[in-house]
Every structure is written in structure tokens, then in C-alpha cells.
Automatic annotation (TrEMBL):
Descriptive protein name: Glycosyltransferase family 2 protein
Annotated signal sequence range: none
Residues in Glycosyltransferase 2-like domain copies: 45-212
Superkingdom assignment: Archaea
Transmembrane feature ranges: 6-29, 284-306, 312-329, 350-370, 382-407
Length: 435
């Protein structure tokens, strides 16, 4: 007895239910217009941690200087985290030209360490974090602050998108970030935003004063600070109106390193805050991540396999009749077409067809909603990138998860930036045995 068809059928049925829910959400979603006038501009400190960002820091600083915001209320702080290139020298040139730009250099201690250093040096009532390889639009800061005051939020998180889509791996990440952004819209409706992303997240200083600064030992400090804020009843909002462009990994090795860090960080932070009072954040968000990054790609692969297998059999049949299309049509109009209709209406085939239709509707609704905010790519480009993503994501995600789980079990003193990660199960056992 083969169990594979039954497993496939269960996956399709579960995903069918989830797709119907997604369809209902997409149909009911309505973009809200934010009408808020800032009468008294607050002092804003933008902190840019930088490590070996010589090729990016100039463009980032140029964009920050061009922000549509009163310069007497703006403070740009660059913290060079022990770079070995010319990051510090380039940043210092801007400090000499603009009195609202400040540049500091410290020993390498990791991104969190650099952010905390910048927070201590800052004077603004609003703190903005910005990765040195990311760039905002001129109106990004104004929009984020309007969003913050309109919703009376304590932290506001922007959408993120890739700067370049020239390479295959960058096209893949374009859709991946689009899904991240869509996930942000979904979890925001449940007041469960769980990441304050490095590119241009906006914080009220009171957040740090009450719960402390970034955890310098955490490899996903942006997730940890958001979950800690949620636990302490601070309001975290996602702002899809603002899209910050970032430089993505341009090869699979760099992408693997980034996604393994993300996966390990998700596991550790979800475990750390599993007792959080927000039940949506505790229970639903974990499920949403499984659906978006595992079930949907897996379901697409299953459908691709089934239809591909049927197409393969059809081509084998055509070859057996020497590709005589007239013979095929003649036979299809008699007994064979009836047999096919009978197979089509069988339970598994019927569910598969309905699921495929709903998945396609979900897909086009997702694109239409996403393009309300990001019109930089055409429909055809997004469809092309999506095909790349759907074909490869199930395999990429499998590699990311397997490698992350291997590190979680056997990893010893792994290094990300200035952070040494040694929180594997084998290290815990050894520390317990010999500690």
C-alpha cells in the first residue's frame, strides 16, 4: 500500500483550507489612508551601524541628508564597528561638511553593540535604526512619523525590498521580501508585529528607557527587541506605505548564511518569548511563518509534480502513437475522453483542481495588493520572479532549515559579525556536564 498519495492529499486539503482563509483576507483587505499633520517636529536621531560598508556608506548618507525633514531637528550618527576598509574615512568627510552628521569608531562588537553605542550618543526623542546598505526615500521619515502618531505606536516598522534584481538570486529575494511585507500586513491586523527590521525602524526613546537597549548576544536583535517590546505592552506597527531598499546577498553562500542566522534567531526568540501574553503572537504568527515559507512552496511543488507527471505520461502516450495528433483527437472524442472526465471528477483530482484555482486567485490578489505599495515592477516581472521563487523556494528553505537545525544541535562557536554564537544543544550538554 502506497501512503504517498494520501500524504499528498492531506497536504492539499490543509492548504486548501488555508488558501480559502487567505482568499477571504485578501478580498476583505482595504488600504487605509493616513491623514495626519505633524505640527511640532520631534528631534530625530538616525543611527547607522557600519562594518566594512565602504562601497555603500556614501550612497546611504547622501539619501539621509536628502530626507525631507528639518535639519535642525535631525541627527545622523554613524558608528563604525571596527571596519577594516575605508568606511570611517568616507563617513568623516560628511561629518566635516554637515553639522548634523556625527561619526564614531569603536572596536568590533557586532551590530547590536554599534546600535547601543549610537543610542547612548544620541539626543533625539525618536530613534531610527538604519543598516548601512539600505536607503530610504526622501519622504520616508515623515511618513513613518505620521504613521506613528496616527496610531499612537511606540515602534513603526517599514516594508523592505531589494535594490537590485539583475541576478537570479536577487529575483528570488524580491518575491521573498514581498512575502515578508505581506506577512507584515497580516500580522499587523492582529497587533502581532514581531520584527523591528534593521532598515529604518522607528522607535520612541521611551521604549529603550523602559525595556533596555538591543541584546548584544542575540543574533536576531531586531526580532528580540520587537518581542520584548510586545511583552511589555508597547505598540508595534507595520507601515507598508514606506518601502526601504536594501542590498541583498548576491550569491547563494551569502544568502545561506543570512537565512541560517534568521532561522536560528527565530527558533531562539520564539522559545525565549513562548510565554508572551499576546496569544496571536504566541500561536498564530508561528503558524503563519510555517504556511508562508513551508506549506505554500511545498504545496506548489506537489502540484507541479502531479501535473508534471501527468504531462510526462501524456508525452509518453504521444510518442507511442508517433505524435499523431489526429489519431489522439479521434480517440479522445470517443471512449478515452469519457475516461478522462471520470478521472477528473474523482475526489483527489477535483480537490487538486479547486485548490489550484484558489491558489491562482490568491496569487493574483496578493500581487494586486502588493502593487498598491510597490509599483516599481510590472505585473509580468513579478509573475516571472514568482515562478522562480515558487520553483526553488521549497528546496532553498529545506537547505536553510536543515543547516540551521544542524547548527542548533551540533554548532560550536559560530560567528556572525562581532557576535560569537554558541547556543547549540551540544554546547549546553557539555557546559552542564563540565560546568
Amino acid at each position: 500500500m502506497y501512503i504517498a498519495p494520501y500524504i499528498i492529499l492531506i497536504i492539499i486539503f490543509v492548504e486548501l483550507l488555508l488558501s480559502i482563509y487567505t482568499l477571504l483576507f485578501l478580498l476583505s483587505y482595504d488600504k487605509e489612508e493616513i491623514n495626519y499633520e505633524i505640527k511640532d517636529y520631534p528631534k530625530v536621531s538616525i543611527i547607522v551601524p557600519a562594518y566594512n560598508e565602504g562601497k555603500n556608506i556614501k550612497n546611504t548618507l547622501e539619501r539621509l541628508i536628502d530626507l525631507e525633514y528639518p535639519k535642525d531637528k535631525l541627527e545622523i550618527i554613524v558608528v563604525d564597528d571596527g571596519s577594516k576598509d575605508n568606511t570611517y574615512e568616507i563617513a568623516k568627510e560628511y561629518e566635516e561638511k554637515y553639522n548634523f552628521v556625527k561619526v564614531y569608531k569603536k572596536e568590533n562588537g557586532g551590530k547590536s553593540s554599534a546600535l547601543n553605542y549610537g543610542i547612548k550618543k544620541s539626543s533625539g526623542e525618536i530613534i531610527v535604526t538604519l543598516d548601512a546598505d539600505s536607503i530610504p526615500e526622501k519622504d520616508s521619515l515623515i511618513k513613518m512619523l505620521k504613521y506613528m502618531y496616527y496610531y499612537n505606536a511606540d515602534i513603526v516598522v517599514p516594508a523592505i525590498q531589494t535594490i537590485s534584481t539583475k541576478k537570479f538570486i536577487e529575483k528570488y529575494q524580491y518575491i521573498d521580501y514581498a512575502i515578508h511585507n505581506f506577512s507584515g500586513i497580516v500580522v499587523d491586523t492582529m497587533n502581532s508585529v514581531f520584527i523591528a527590521s534593521g532598515p529604518f525602524s522607528v522607535f520612541k526613546r521611551s521604549v529603550f528607557e523602559k525595556i533596555g537597549v538591543f541584546d548584544e548576544k542575540n543574533i536576531s536583535e531586531d526580532m528580540e527587541i520587537a518581542l520584548r517590546a510586545q511583552k511589555n505592552n508597547f505598540k508595534v506597527k507595520f507601515c507598508p506605505e514606506v518601502i526601504i531598499k536594501t542590498v541583498p546577498p548576491d550569491n547563494f553562500k551569502s544568502l545561506l548564511k543570512q537565512r541560517v542566522r534568521w532561522t536560528l534567531g527565530f527558533i531562539e526568540n520564539y522559545t525565549k518569548y513562548r510565554d508572551i501574553e499576546n496569544e496571536y503572537l504566541r500561536e498564530v504568527v508561528f503558524g503563519i511563518n510555517i504556511v508562508l515559507y513551508i506549506l505554500i512552496p511545498l504545496s506548489f511543488s506537489v502540484i507541479l509534480y502531479i501535473y508534471g507527471y501527468q504531462l510526462y505520461n501524456f508525452l509518453i502516450y504521444l510518442s507511442s502513437i508517433n505524435y499523431n495528433i489526429f489519431y489522439f483527437i479521434q480517440n479522445s472524442l470517443s471512449f478515452n475522453i469519457n475516461l478522462y472526465i471520470f478521472q477528473l471528477l474523482s475526489t483527489s483530482q477535483f480537490i487538486l483542481i479547486i485548490f489550484s484555482i484558489i491558489l491562482l486567485i490568491d496569487f493574483f490578489l496578493f500581487i494586486s495588493i502588493y502593487r498598491r505599495y510597490d509599483k516599481s515592477k510590472s505585473w509580468l516581472s513579478i509573475i516571472y520572479y514568482s515562478i522562480i521563487y515558487l520553483i526553488f523556494s521549497v528546496y532553498f528553505n529545506a537547505v536553510f532549515i536543515i543547516v540551521a537545525l544542524y547548527y542548533k544541535i551540533f554548532g560550536r562557536n559560530l560567528r556572525w559579525g562581532g557576535i560569537v554564537w554558541n547556543n547549540s544543544l551540544i554546547n549546553k550538554l557539555l557546559n552542564k556536564k563540565y560546568g
